[in-house]
Amino acid sequence: MNAAHPILSNKATMDSLVKTIRIPARPSLLVEVQKELNQEDPSAKNLAKIVSKDVALSAALMKLTNSSFIGLRLKARSINHAVELLGMQQTGVLMTGIVVRQTVQAKGNALRSFWDFSAKRAQLMSVLMRRAAYCSADVAYTFGLFCDIGVPILMERFPNYEQTWLAANRELALPMTDIEEQAHATHHASIGALLARTWGLPEVVQMGILLHHDYSTLECGATDNAIRGLIALCALAEYAIHRSEGLEQPPEWQKARVRVAEFLGMSLDDVEDWADQLQDVLSTI
Is the pLDDT assigned to residue 111 strictly greater than 80? Predict the structure, then answer.
């Protein structure tokens, strides 16, 4: 056991540790966006006004709306036009992504491509969820963007967390969250779920984040199908991204693939076919 980071089995001690980890508060603009979207009759005009309050966020939304990543046929000419083209729900999803990227800063060599990977995963999950339909594509996108959000938060808290994260991603047998727990008495999934709750994200997203490396959940019929669907499709999306980067059998996929296939009601060959098809999607992102 590392003397500098002992395992803390006492719940009170663990709760005390979590209090030392900075969970960014939900930005006020995002509160306003979510409040408008939760209205009985939300207004696209009001949503555009809220977004327009912040020049930097407005510019980021315009840039993203007109990017090949979104792939709209028309180019947005203004924030009002962007909301019209995207629709209010997708505008809210994209604004949440822009805000979290500006609020939670990723540091360290291991996280140089953190947001790029998160954005690809979110896009693939949106595509997969339209096919599998365990929940809405917007919820899947949000989950894909946020599921590893605990990583940069823990990197800020623990100077040596980057090494822990790299070791966890190389682990072939234990859940990667066990490796984090051994070193820091917490893990990125629990911290990410805490941020998701603080930011008012849907409960299915909160629980999916908490459990997304616990593949035994896929066999638990008592767990909501939407949560299990997010976990299964996340593992498949990440596998597809790693394949596109030349890593054919990442450790997490080796741990997940049989359970993922069984949950989806597919053979392993069929799952590989889905991963093949996702390569075409990745080539357009």
Answer: no
pTM for the complete prediction? 0.88
State mean pLDDT over 261-272. 97
Q: What is the dihedral of CA 255, 260, 265, 266, to 10 degrees?
A: -70
Name residues whose C-beta falls within 8 Å of residue 282's C-beta, 6 or more positions apart in sequence. 120, 124, 240, 241, 244
- Is the Cβ–Cβ distance between 103 and 115 less than 8 Å? no
Q: Could you report the per-residue pLDDT of 22-58, keeping only the tens digit for each?
A: 899 999 999 999 999 999 999 999 999 999 999 999 9
Residue 202 amino acid letter:
P
Task: Find the domain containing 117 and state its range.
Answer: 106-285
Q: Per this entry, what is the length of the chain?
A: 285
3 domain residue, yes or no: no
Q: What angle do CA 206, 49, 30 make, to 5 degrees?
A: 20
Same domain, 91 and 118: no
Nearest to 235 by CA among 74, 75, 76, 125: 125
The confidence band for 21, taking pLDDT boundaries of 50, 70 and 90, is confident
Query: Which of 103, 120, 150 is at the close of a domain?
Result: 103
Please determine, for residue 108, whether its predicted confidence score (pLDDT) is greater than 60: no
Over pLDDT 70: what percentage of the chain?
91
* CATH number of the CATH domain containing 131: 1.10.3210.10
Let me know if residue 15 belongs to a domain.
no
Whether 10 is in a domain gets the answer no
Residues 71, 164, single domain; the answer is no
Q: C-alpha angle 153/24/55, rounded to 5°?
A: 115
Q: Which long-range contacts (CB under 8 A, 24 or more apart) does 17-21 make?
A: 17/185, 17/186, 18/186, 18/191, 18/194, 20/157, 21/153, 21/154, 21/157, 21/186, 21/191
